[in-house]
Amino acid sequence: MCGRYLVEINDEELKEIAAAAEVNARHAEQFSFAFNGGEIFPGSIAPVITANEICFMKWGFPSRDAKRPPHINARSETAATSKTFGSGLSARRCIIPASGYFEWKTLDKKRKLKFKFSLPDGSPMYMAGVYSNDGRFAILTREAAPAILEIHDRMPVILPKSLIEKWLKESPDALNEALTDLRFIPVPASDKQPNQASLFS
Prior knowledge:
This protein is of the alpha+beta class. It is built from 3 helices and 14 strands.
């Protein structure tokens, strides 16, 4: 985890977050960006909340070896001592808003079943993350809750909304109060939601 997540902007809270990121991108003369939500893949540009602003960032820290995929996740247990994520954990913490995330359960050598994970009440999910000076982010992960282990042994660090400010501005200790009670359901193979974010001039 986490290799893909979902942002549904028919949710008013997530829609407001995406709109704020678009405004800040224009003010910074960074780019114009049409974000329509959908499934977010590694390398996608998506809304991120930092201590100072809501902005767009790219998912994944580049690997030192160009042949290897980017680092899209950071293990919360070792991030503080990591050369890649250590400085981010101490000074550049962020929140990645989402409707939920996806994980795959291996059924046999040829088949995997996709599951969608979300909060029990369907409210937006706020995943803890770190970001780099050049506008890239990674999602922090932790050991999976017992109910999730049958599907995967890792899960994102999901913070209660009440701890967002503490995480962003005060202390990484907020990780100790992460949420683990999730709802998960299988996703039909025909239910494909492509990432609909797109850049334009």
